[in-house]
UniProtKB/TrEMBL annotation:
It comes from the Bacteria. Residues 8-18 have a biased composition (Polar residues). This is DUF58 domain-containing protein. Residues 72-289 form the DUF58 domain. The lineage of its organism: Bacteria, Pseudomonadati, Pseudomonadota, Gammaproteobacteria, Alteromonadales. Residues 1-20 are annotated as: Disordered. It holds the Pfam family DUF58. InterPro entries: DUF58, vWFA_dom_sf.
Amino acid sequence: MKKDRSNAIDTPSGSTDAARNKSKNIYVDINDLRRLQHKAKGFSFLTKQPVNSALSGKNVSKLRGRGLNFEELRHYRPGDDIRSMDWKVTRRTGKPHIKVYTEERERNVYLVVNQSSSMFFGSTNKMKSVIAAEIAALMAWKVTDSGDRIGAVVFNDKQVKVVSAKRGKLHVVNVLAEVVKMNHQLKVGKGEPNSNSINEALIKISHICGHNALIIIVGDGHGWDTKSTQLIKNIRQHNDVIACQIYDPLEQQLPEMSNMVVSDGEKQIQFSSLNRNTQEKYRVSIEQQENRFESATRKNRIPLLSLNTLEPIEKQLRKALGKAG
């Protein structure tokens, strides 16, 4: 059920600054995303996490970190780890040999950012689509600061845009520019939601991520189905995955109103949300959508960060990933 997203955030009259701030809550600004570089602190994707981090716990798979590159095959030396022995070469030559590996200096990190119509909603503060863009910016700046390569798959209801993984701050701006471009295409009543868009994005990322990459999914879980679960299972076999689920409090339960008008920008219906049957149907529909996404992350041991549209997103990330402040 769609709520009237055109009236989700009203612009107060008589205040230019207030109007500008409200506008930024509806559509993201590239300069604001660039300034988030200075707030991308207090969280990390390291394999070792604080006990209160969403990346720790018995039901969460430890992040692999960077991959290993084969360096050389050499004779065994006293003190070498026996687990590195190459038994085939040892048997063939009659002399003990070990494989030497070095840790990759960098890894590929890919953002999968949802900018579809289901994200174009916000009740009292920012749109979910704006929050998604801010999460993408904070993650991208943090990744670049760590020396890793950052790439992205940005999607809406009609298209999927792939940005290859590269290093550097200039490339981060290029990634964020694609997010901003799709964000500004969001309009009330423009087209029907494409529930298959998340699967199209997952197929794209599965083709480019390779092995030992970190995939960060940013969205609301809308459209997640059995195919999505199978796709993420395949990706998860050789890569790390983190899921960020964005929600707005108003979506969790319909406000009780005797005369509620709901619109998608083109058509509207009028009904009473005081009806218990209506409330229950809405609640069940939302729970089913959320449960499909949460169940998929739990089964595949994927850390799930639940993030809202009301609090500053940088503070939520620091709290979720184990550091306050």
